[in-house]
Amino acid sequence: MARPTGNSFIDSILYGTTRWGPTSLTYSFDSSYDFWTSAARSAFRDALKSWSDVADIEFSETLFTSSADLVESYVDDATMYGISGYDGVLGLHEVPYGTGFNGQLQGWYNWETFGWPLEYGYDADSLKSGGAARSTFIHEIGHALGLAHPHDTDGLTVRMPGVSASDDLGTYELNQGVYTVMSYNDGWVDQDPWWNGYNDRGFNSGPGALDIAAIQYLYGADTSNNTGGTTYKLGTKMGWSAIWDTGGSDRIKYDGNRDAVINLNSATLDESKHAGGYLSYVKGADSYGGFTIAGDFTDALADRNGETGVIIEHATGGGGDDRITGNRVDNILRGNDGADRLDGRAGDDEIDGGAGKDNLIAGTGDDTVLGGAGSDVMRGDNGADDLGGGSGSDRLYGSGGRDELKGGTGNDLLRGGAGGDRFVFRDGYDKDVIDDFTRGTDRLVLDDNLWAGTLTAQEVVDTYGRDKGSYTVLNFGDGDVLTIRGIANPDNLVDDIAII
What's the whole-model pTM score? Predict the structure, then answer.
């Protein structure tokens, strides 16, 4: 049993080092059985492109079947039974033999039946991106290029860990379409388009992260695809694919009103549960498809700030309660409406919760965090973070680093944490509480629009300060009241006040 890469998940979809010698292959639509429809031809070409977009391999069409590298035939169910010996086979393809194969391979596609519970064949819906027929094309082309099923045990390959039969999900449940199109478990089992009676959504619209790693191991990576700024849009009626993007400033975006999950981390391609990637998708019944982000198994891409694999910089949620997770680079994360949870992780991030009751986590790095409307919770981390509450009753936690905390309108709680922090209070900020002000280390930044005329720091505390025993209150009138806990005498604030 071959272990060419040493990675058990990737090796499980390789026939050892079986591959073509040439990397420019011709293909031909064979009409000696049944005639290929125009829609089927177009879908097959797109399926080929999904492989050439990620690997250093090219396909060109020829009318001359006799000289083509790949001969693709459209057949009925009876013919497929005669070729395969099984009922209801969707597709079948020969595989290259040995390293450096240079011959002709045949593929067959059963247009007549698609097996229980669907009998739509290769109809217009099934041929769409994310449809069952399109996914079958991608799967069979994978075989034509040298990829195996994760459940195969023919001596040239090894089974995926934890897999003993085709329907086993295996260790970490990586034997499914969201991670490899070579699996017999289509799409994501939590969505299960087969069982729910769909043939036009929820299947693979491109290779998964494990497929991309395997095919790039065989042929090298294509680095000319998606080199500029690209927006990848999430929806509810789409297919699954791994994003292979080689440059530019990119974004995953959802425009709807359901709850979205967006994770900007790439597939780890190791022996862990995230070897096949992290899922980005839209929650809810009757929602299908999404993205993972490919890793970089052959080191074809430049790392950035410790981030390896494909780098997607930004994410934008919709009108629901979104969960967005950043990576190690500088991200812009926007939640928009809804009660969102945004986690910047590493990097100098800009995090904007938008309207709704949000939970915003800066992560490491020097981050800017904006709460927007709604009662939000904002958490900094190590680094000089800028936390802005917006409207609503917010809670701002600075953690380590020299943070700047601005509660905004609403009744807010501000806690700077370790480091010399700046607490900003402006006209119209309503009732804020500073929970951990440290004399000589932190700064209280006051907007001079809170009063008329020009005042010194001493005059400010003399005019508006009140000693409440264990805390000080600065009452500027018109509802603007700042409470500083742990400071018993307003005069103790004078040296730490900055007026802007």
Answer: 0.89
Determine the Cα–Cα distance for residues 200 and 185; give it in Å rounded to an integer.
16
Domain identity same for 264 and 130: no
What tokens appear for 33 in the block?
């059985």
Cα(497)–Cα(437) distance, rounded to whole angstroms?
Answer: 12
Confidence check: pLDDT of 117 > 50:
no
Residue 485: its H or E element: strand 480-485
Does 35 share its domain with 177? yes
- Is 2 domain-assigned? no
In-domain check, residue 221: no
Whether residue 4 has a cis bond before it, omega within 30° of 0? no
* Domain match, 391 and 341 both: yes
Nearest Cα to 409, choosing from 434, 427, 385? Answer: 427
Q: Which residues contact 299 (CB under 8 A, 6 or more apart)?
A: none
Is 409 inside a domain boundary? yes
Q: What are phi and psi of 217, to 5 degrees?
A: -65, -40
Cα gap 349→340, rounded to integer Å? 16
Helix (H, G, I), strand (E, B) or coil at 143: helix
By CB atoms closer than 10 A (0-12, 13-18, 19+), residue 267 is buried
Name the amino acid, one letter, at 467: D
Residue-range definition of the domain harbouring residue 302 = 226-499
In a domain, 304, yes or no: yes
Residues of the chain above pLDDT 70, percent: 98
What average pLDDT is seen over the chain?
Answer: 93
Question: Is the Cβ–Cβ distance between 491 and 466 less than 8 Å?
Answer: no
Note the pLDDT of residue 43: 97
Give the H/E segment covering residue 51: helix 38-52
Mean pLDDT of 58-76: 97
